[in-house]
Structure formats: structure tokens, C-alpha cells
Amino acid sequence: MKTKETILITETPRDAMQGLTGFIPTITKTQYINLLLKCGFNCVDVGSFVSPKAVPQMADTAEVISLLDHSGSGSKMMVIVGNVRGANQAALESKIKIMGFPYSVSGSFLKRNLNTTPELAWQTVLDLREICELSQQELRVYVTMAFGNPYGDVWNDEIVLQEVEKLYNAGIRNLVFSDITGEGTPGNIERLCSLLINSFPEAKLGIHLHSKPYDWQPKVEAAWRAGIRNFEGAMGGFGGCPMTGYELLGNLDTLRLIDWCEQNQISHNIVEKALHEARHFSTEVFKHQ
Q1: How many CB atoms within 10 Å of residue 160?
Q2: Residue 36: which of 60, 7, 15, 63 has the closest Cα?
Q3: Distance separating alpha carbons of residues 64 and 34, to the nearest angstrom
Q4: Which DSSP state fits 253?
């Protein structure tokens, strides 16, 4: 797998923190994210504008953003929004370049995660597209449950393909396929990613994997073989979605991903010294978790 190609990594401290029960102080979050912004990640997911009752850990996102130092950083900052209200908040933040929206091919998950229906979620996508056009921010749509469905909803490649085609025809080009309950196998990840890349060659396609410590590498390699070059992870593998109804399944560990890149001579553009500092500080962030 030796290659001179470059991987683009989104680091997701928001996802690493959101499901934790102990509130991480705002200043601690800020110090950690500021260190991550120095590492050279393509994008850093810094928070979310969602209901503080649903995700209390992210209630201080606006304050965190105000304290972030973006000078000298080549990383784009992203926040997750769950509705138009959250998007309007994000649109006021000049530091934020990307809004992420957790769409899904699963009606059951949309109900659990956003308390919405597929029809209303689709309208939200269209509304967010307009808000992002006005605010000159990029919309990143997450296609969750892309590689399987644990709720009994009908799932197959064709359903995913149809939803992506709808998004593509609506002008959405930044799409990330998310596997937050770990349904994906190397086989269906490679098959579906290959199909999507071949079907939508002008889209910017990525993958957001959740996995156990022992099964991440075959999934990463399957996505890479299929042509995916945009990966998301969280340092230390912390995190998981608290809305699935299942025990939290951690994120792909960014540190393991970077090690894998180095073993395979894949360029990642991460600054080693800054990464070491962020890794050291992460023990402070997650010490009580």
C-alpha cells in the first residue's frame, strides 16, 4: 500500500467529548482545541449548536469559539448543527468555515438523534444550504447509518445511493459516510465507497468510523482502497454518539490512523511536535472519564 498520496484528517474533539457525563471546563476545552489547531489537521470539529438539554457538554460552544486562536492555523473549524436555529447561531461565527449536519438513511436514528422525520430532515438540509450560501460557509452532510442499520429499518446499497443522489442533485458536495454504531465491515465499506466514488466523482467524500480498538485497521484500509481520502477521528479513540440507544462506541483513534499512514508512506501533513503537545494535554481533558 506504499503511496505518495495525501490523507486529509478531520479531528473531532466535539465528538470525543459530547457523550461524557462529567462537564469539561470551558477553559480546558479551549486549551485543548487550540493545541489541536496547531497540528495541521485539515479540519477541527470544535463544538455543536444543539439543545443543551440533549447535549449539555456542548452548552458552552459559543464561548469556546470566542476563545479559540486561529492565527497561523491552516485548519478549518467546523461545528455540528441539528436544526435551523443552530445553523443561524453558527452563521454568526466568522471563525467557523464548515457546518456539519447529521442526516441519516435511518428514520429511526433521525427520531432518536434529532427528534425529526426523514421529510423534515430533508427540508432542514435545504434550509441549511441556503443559510450556508448567505454566510459563505460550507455545508458538510453526514450520511449516518451508511453501512448498516441496527434498528430494523430497511438498509441496502441502493437506499444509500438514492439518498446521496438527492443530496448531490441539491448541490451538496461535502458528504461524509458515518458508521457510529459499527455496523460496517471491510467488505461493505469497500463496496459501497467504491460505488459512491464512481457514481459521484465530483463530490468530496469522506468517512467517519467508530470502531473497537482491534477492528479499525481493516476498515480504514477498505475505505482507502475504495478511494476515500478524507477521514475523521478523535485522539485516543474517545467519544461516541449518546443518542444511539447503545453503549458508546469510540471514534477511530487519530493517533493510530497517523501511525498507519506513516507505516504506509501516506502523507498526512501533521506537525509532530504540536501533535505530541496535544496528545499530552488530552490526558488532562479526559482524566476523569
Answers
A1: 19
A2: 15
A3: 10
A4: B
- Over the stretch 235-268, which tens digit does the pLDDT of each residue have? 999 887 766 555 557 899 999 999 999 999 999 9
- Convert 98-135 to b/e letters by CB count within 10 Å (16 or more is b): bbbbbbbbbbebbbbbbebeeeebbebbeebbebbeeb
Q: Which CATH superfamily is domain 8-285 in?
A: Aldolase class I (3.20.20.70)
Look up residue 17 and give its three cell numbers: 467529548
Please tell me the distance from the alpha carbon of residue 180 to that of residue 65, in angstroms, as a whole number: 26
Query: How many angstroms separate the CA atoms of 187 and 122, rounded?
Result: 29
Q: In this predicted structure, which of 81-90, 181-190, 247-256 has the lowest mean pLDDT?
A: 247-256
Q: Which residues pair with 141 in a beta bridge?
A: 101, 175
3-class SS of residue 212: coil
- The residue type of 110 is L
DSSP letter at 23?
P
CA distance 34 to 278: 9
